[in-house]
Amino acid sequence: MSFLRALKDSKFWEPEEAVGTFWDRAVQKLDAEPRHSEAAVALASVKGSLGVLFRGLGGEAGVEIKACGDEVSEHRRSWRRRLARDTERVKSARFDGVTLFLPRELDVFPDAGLNRQLYLWLAALAVVATPPNLVFEDPLQRDIVRLRCAHRDSEKVVAAFAGLRAIRNDLYAATLTARAKLSAPPVEAELENWICARLAQEPAAIDTPLRRALAGDYESFAALTAPPKYRPCRPVLLWGERAPPPAPSGRRSAESQEPGGGGAEGAEETKKARRQKSDQAERKDSLLLYRFESLLSFGDFLNLNRHVEDEDEDNAKKAAQDAERIDVAQHSKKPRTRLKFDLDLAPEDGDREKFSGKFIYPEWDWKKETLVPGQARILENVAEEAPQGLVLDAAARKRINAVKKQFETLRPKRRVLGRQIEGSELDLDEILRARADRRACGASSDRLYRDARNDERDLAVAVLFDGSRSTESAVQGRPVIAVAREALVALARGLDACDDDLAIYAFSSLKREKVFFDICKQFDEPFGPRVDARIAGLKPGFYTRIGAALRHASFKLSRRPNARKLLLLISDGKPNDLDHYEGRYGVEDTRRAVMEARRLGQSVFCVAIDSQRRASLQHLFGPAGFALVSQPEKLATALPAIYRHLVR
Length: 648
Fold this sequence. Notes:
This protein is of the alpha/beta class and about 650 residues long. The chain has 19 helices and 24 strands.
């Protein structure tokens, strides 16, 4: 069987393909960095502990830890390595003050314990890391600044956290052992010797201008320039990279509401990205009549008028993995093939023009630590009803009825209270006790009645559903939006059986001037077929400006006279929009909106659908303010248990 598989993989019926495959397999590992798959440690397995360590050492709570892919390095390589690969990709870690990017998997050491310790060290390094103030054009000066910052931050870590010194020493020794030894021109060799001396923790001489520059002498540094054909030094993974905060980029136009088809692939890592102008892609005339499909020369974005290829999904995934940086452009041609992945993309310039209208809300600027008034406009409307109403198959009706029965057990029960001053009947036990007390001491209690009362919760619940494009994805053959609609119907019928006051809202956004807020059910509106039809009519919208939607739902909830108020958010927990509302800005504004609602006496709880963002959810809603439903198809059955926990 293995022979047949090898024969099939060789593609002998395509000679060019077979020769290329054989050549690639023969040379691709020449002088390659050793990889130890048997000792590999995945970021997902340590991400939770990394978040605890980072914040415990003093890192900002709003920083998110994300996986990143290998990056292209321009360092000098041996001739055999150049023969094997046009470019060299190396594992990297970088911190820009907003996001900590770490390799999706570490297998650089033969010991799994060392690979895990490397994750811990990189997280600790990010706590003290400071980006360079200046960016130098000369590559040699860039290397000097990068190495000095790395060595300085490493010393700051062991000075501030002495318990990490042993880990640092072990990682230094292992890195020095694994570091490749290559012949190089004098300047590059001197830099490499300095790196090895630092890893060996040996004192470095300062007998040359380059060594004096590395020691901090500015005059020597300013006089140095890179020689011809200079290559940057090979990156040292355990020193990481310090990147400046993401700079604002150009404005984007609103995307068409028409969604593409195809499946969505879950994101495993974050790709570097930049926005590109694509005005030529909108031209109606053709660049060429012949597509020259045999000339596969360019892998990067070009601003040209060309046909949008609807590639096979596997080919599109392979192209995304091979690309070091992904260019994001706006055009109206919608291919069916879609992939889902995170982008390390700079936010856009924030437009600070104030809005006017009926529902205008501020947003929190985390850099200035202030609420900026008039930043988001709510467009409130009654949700459109599905023309055919709510259509459920037998299995869905069975699931909804089962959920409704679970909610009915939470209905306030009728209690009989004894020892009352007045009531509907006499309490015989208290009468006997009163007569005995009167005979014994001449005094008795007048609480001689029993009374039956309803144990009312006096609770108002506002359900806020995230109707953004994230609900377009599918789980087990069913769209998430269909699963969510079923869960909302089950929740509405269950709370109606509990006699709790309920309102259901859905939201999505298209920049700050269009935050769509659809009303599926008002508090005073009875549950019925029209509410069912509105829920059935919900469709995936645009983006997720959670802060503004939360503030508006909180405003409506605050007008209720109920003693207890619950704001229940059903979302993937990732705020984002087409403008500057993404990354740290969106996270901090959402967190501020949650705090504002809680100051009004409202309980805020998030049910996160199909989300692996536990650390960021904890930052947004607190350790007890969210629940993860890892399988969206089980959302409806999970809601009664969540609700029971919230109202007890």
